[in-house]
Amino acid sequence: FEDVLDIGVHISRLGARSVTYVFQFTCQGRQIASGKTIAVCCHVGTDRSLNSIDIPEPLRTRLARYVISE
């Protein structure tokens, strides 16, 4: 459990309301795992309900530089 891991992250898809993040886990240059997660931009209502909303343009612009198509 003392190994040092490197984790590479990029965005494989930047949608209108969601972002797909891809992860590559390596140890000493050898890939040992990979994964992805999808995050959705939401507005939290006063009743704690979630409603998906468009990703605000300033954030989209900042995220766009990390998109790498697979």
Task: Tell me about this structure.
- The structure is a single chain.
- By secondary structure, the protein is mainly beta.
- Helix content is 11%, strand content 51%.
- The strands form two sheets. The protein has a three-stranded antiparallel sheet.
- The longest helix is centred in the last third of the chain and has 8 residues, at 57-64.
- It is elongated.
- The model has no long low-confidence stretch (mean pLDDT 95).
Summarize the structure.
The chain has one helix at 57-64; strands at residues 6-14, 18-27, 30-40, 42-44, 50-52. The protein is mostly beta strands and 70 residues long.
- Binned, the helix content reads 10-25%
Beta-strand percent range: over 45%
Largest β-sheet summary: 3 strands, antiparallel
Low-confidence stretches: none
Q: Please, what is the average pLDDT?
A: 95
Structural class determined from secondary elements: mainly beta
Characteristics:
3-stranded antiparallel sheet, single chain, mainly beta, 70 residues, 5 strands
Write the layout of secondary structure elements.
Layout: E1 6-14, E2 18-27, E3 30-40, E4 42-44, E5 50-52, H1 57-64
Antiparallel strand pairs: 1-2, 2-3, 4-5
